[in-house]
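Good morning,

Both structures are done.
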Amino acid sequence: MRRPTLANKLLLAAISLAIGLGAGELWLRTRSTVELGFDYRDGQFLRAVPFARDLTSNSFGFHDVEPSPKTPDVFRVLLVGDSYVASRSVSIPQSVGRRLEFHLNKNRDSAVDVTSVAMEGWGQGQELAAIKRLGARLAPDLVVTLFLSLNDVRNNYPPLQAKGTEQLRRMKHFRPGWWRLHKSDAPLFWLESSVLNRVLSHRLAVWLSGRSDREIPIDYFVYSEQVDPEWQRAWQETKRLLLETRQLARSLGAVYALVSASTPQGVLGPDQGVERLVESYPAMRELPWDLERADHELGRFSQEHGIPFLALEPAFRRLTREQGVELHWQLDGHWNIEGNDRAADLIAAFLRTEGLTLRPGTP
């Protein structure tokens, strides 16, 4: 029997390689953008979004049902916040406001109505303006701020907000898993129509960008143990806005409560959450961080001013670490369907325990 020549061996190797590459290409074409880890559109490698945004809005422009006219027999909760309350990653019935209404009305004779007033990107200043505009018309009995320390403190202070906006515009890696790369950043990207070529080039581009990027997203400095004067002023402005919101609620005849949301890194625990951030942003290794710092700050502030306060993160952490429950969308960070429902259930239990869903004089 004739032994294969070198030319035959090379031909066989080339055929095997072509078959392997073809099989890999076909398999990758069946994967979702979340499984691939990116979305590719118009020459840009963008973060994969694991949901279709629900653009449905009521007449006020909010992602919620149309508010019913207020009647004396209905107790109305006004839930205000940013994208967590807007909940556009889920349908309206699955949003935190709708689920809160469901949980508050369980085993109850009288009706509770929950109306959500929220927009993506809002801080407490925008929330306060919305209550001033709509409060008398909606006539709430209870106002609840759902606070997201990760960006609300920055949103509330114009100098930090301007820095965050500029950083978001230019930074390739603004959140863990959120990459924004141009095809020119992707070496060896020869065949744009090939999913396999996209995947290999994207992984190489992420690796190269991660090695060269020494910038820390500004929002994470809310967890820094070294608080500079600018962040101190941002916290002072945030507290002022929260107190003004409480005062406005009182002027409407409503009581006021404060709830802080969970974050994808916070639910992992203080140490593991920081480790996750450091993996994405190695420059963070050079500074001390405390993922519980913001909730502790809010807790002290609330106790000082007699504001009922609930931090959701401890309960979410137990669900995540002990039961393996996924509460945040992968590669996005907002609450998923389960996260919205669990948050609503916890808030409802907190409001009942504090007696906040009872009118004065109600037994």
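Second structure follows.
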Amino acid sequence: MTWRSTWRAGLGAAVLLTAAVYAAILVVDPYDAVAVSPALDRQPIARDQRYSAPALARKARYDSAILGTSTTRLMQPALLDGAFGAAFVNLSVDNALPFEQDRLLAVFLRHHVRPKIVLIGLDHTMWCREHDQDPQKLRRKLPDTLYDDDRWNDLAHLLSRRVLVHAWEEFVYLAGLGPQKWGKDGYTAWLPPERYDPARARRYLYGPPGAPPDPELDRAADDLPADRASWRFVHIEWHARMLERMPPETMKIVVVMPTHRIAHGRPGGRVALRLAECKRRLFAIDARYPNVATLDFAFDSDITRHDGNYWDQVHLTAEAAVRFQRLIAEGVRGRRSERDLFEYVDLRRYGN
């Protein structure tokens, strides 16, 4: 066999192998995004929810959605379904910037023109930031194509190591060779109670024993301008954009998430004053739109002052998250605050 024929045989084998792998990925379609893939009972596959959430947002069986960061990943659609007579899907994404939450909402609304309820969990550690990195740096080539309605433009991005790993995990599940790891309604118990360690949680809350307080959370407000209108919150207008997208008849539930009291800063300090002003601006945005119910959990309360309710400064334990969701239902249905738990915000105070 000549060198040329050997080279051709090797090239042909490589082409055939690549074509076979590509065909297998098209069939398995781990992101449920390709027009030519068969309709299979897939599970959301990616640890990075940016890859799995768009397909969930398109599912016709849901009429309501939860949007937010990892803090709202703790919310179980099954609990909210019964409370509100809806079919929720959890579209929360770890560390999702507001523009990413808006992008997911846009996908959901294109496929659910008149959703029943949209619940937006406002993680103030994200929404009330003073500055942020360039959001363009967070864009990923494949997710961008997953968020449009072109079911063909994903074909060019399916040969990568990441996709291959996800396709294999999906194949293992579809073939019955492995368990379901990810919830089909977007909820996965990613902070299981059996892994909770109170000592570790305290380290996340307060730092190692003997460590000085977080200088940012303990910082005085001396450098803040007296004119609060000049204070900058880089993400806040995305909230208006999200509410603007939704039809008037859709119930919008806006929840300021119950972070641990440590995350609120010391009373009268820089962090605490900025949080209060940020919430005021968010509530003023809510007041512009119809059918909005706003609940504020981000203050010193029977939830936020107990260390045993938290894994760290922002993530509730599973038990506390269940209680939190029940309180949301009680607050929205009763249209009232619950002393030492949450405030049902009277948006009339924030209207123009």
